[in-house]
Amino acid sequence: MTTIRSEAELAVARAIASRTEALFKASGALKEGHFLLKSGKHSERYLEKFLVLQDPAATSELCGFWASAHRGPDGTPLVDVVAGPTTGGVVLAFETARQLGVRSIFAEEVKDADGTARREFRRGFTIAPGERVLLVDDILTTGGSLLAMLPAVEAFGGEIVTCAVLADRSGGLASLTSPKSGRSYPLRQLWQLQLPTYEPGVDTCPACRAGVPLYAPGSTGASGA
Questions:
Q1: Architecture of the 8-224 domain
Q2: Spatial separation of the C-alpha atoms in residues 180 and 118, rounded to whole Å
Q3: Rounded Cα–Cα distance for residues 129 and 159 (Å)
Q4: CA separation for the pair 170, 187 (Å, rounded)
Q5: pTM here?
Q6: What integer pLDDT is reported at residue 70 of this predicted model?
Q7: Contacts for 183 with CB less than 8 Å, ≥ 6 apart
């Protein structure tokens, strides 16, 4: 379902997008090179969100945009719990929940015996049936992390209010439909940009074709030819 926004709402969204972009650029988070993404695809540009999230003031400001959007006119939170996927989502969920005065939980990636990856709430985290959930994450490329979160929330009977990301690098092409229920959920981003991705190989990826060394950012930091 398409949401029609007023000119005032669009102006606010543009201001938030501009500020989010400024915070990313000021931190040096927008990188150029040849990167291996979590999806397995390659990109010539990469957003290293932890260069932003290492700054408590910047993180608090970004999460404040989400918190403000999920308060009623009287300041009452419109959600009961904020949830995110490991790892960046842990920081974002905590700070957003802190500002709203609600609980913060996170879901970890686990693999079944056949190697299938999914998200699961562990460590005693639960969601009561009917509780309103705000899902948050850092960077959306294909939406894989948030898609894996949807069945985990649905399994508890939680009601997903919004799925929110700092930056949508798909250019608005990604959508979130639960692989379990088939239900589609609203996706909101602070900043939208289009960073093309490519299948690996000299026939499909310009950086591969040019022989630019491949770098795997994130927790491994591994690089290769």
A1: 3-Layer(aba) Sandwich (3.40)
A2: 12
A3: 8
A4: 12
A5: 0.86
A6: 97
A7: 150, 154, 177
